[in-house]
Specification:
- By secondary structure, this protein is mainly alpha-helical.
- The protein is built from nine helices and three strands, in the order H-H-H-H-H-H-H-H-E-E-E-H.
- The protein has one domain.
- Strands 2-1-3 form a three-stranded mixed β-sheet.
- Strand 1 and strand 2 form a beta hairpin.
- The protein is globular and about 45 Å long.
- It starts with a helix and ends in a 29-residue tail after the last helix.
- Pfam families: MDMPI_N.
- GO terms for molecular function: metal ion binding.
- InterPro entries: DinB/YfiT-like (IPR034660), Maleyloyr_isom (IPR017517), MDMPI_metal-binding (IPR024344).
Amino acid sequence: MTDIRAAIAGERTDLAGLLATLPADDWDRPTLCAGWRVREVVAHLTMPYRYSGAAVLRGVLRARGNFNRFADRAARKDAATLSAGDLVTSLRDNVNHPWKPPGSGPEAALSHDVVHGLDITVGLGLDRVVPLDRLRLVLDGTDRRSVKYFGVDLAGIQLRATDLDWTYGTGEPVTGRAQDLLLAVCGRTLPAGRLTGTEAARFTGGVGQRPGAP
């Protein structure tokens, strides 16, 4: 538990530092989350620190029980009303916040931070490398349920990391850095050249993940 909490704090600290250095124009550039700019993604990342449980429940009810619809509305509203500085401060002030997705453990909170951080950096073309120990904690939680949640077709494919001793599935190998394979598992569409293999085109060259997805 201590290692996971330290990894979460480290990831949030690193991401806050990176965001603080972004040129103003970058906050309005697209990310791997389709329809979300950098500011919407950061608003979504920091939503758990700014919304009470009751506020989330009310928002979900207004969205007719659809959490993703609520999350999209909240991200767009907050991105329009909070400055980049406000969002960075919210992230930096909450590096040790104990939030975790309902029904999940701290590993899911780390995954949320890592994946959305990559949505930003890959979308902007920044070659930020997530520390491998954090990626290991996230990737070790990959299972059929998580793959099914994101609607990813991994039939006949084995994902193989080139920088970490990690594989998932069986079949034709698709290889790449661990962080790029994580994005593929989470339904993101990567820039061309990030993955290799005869089936790599399944995961590259299109639009990103639907907005509001964890």
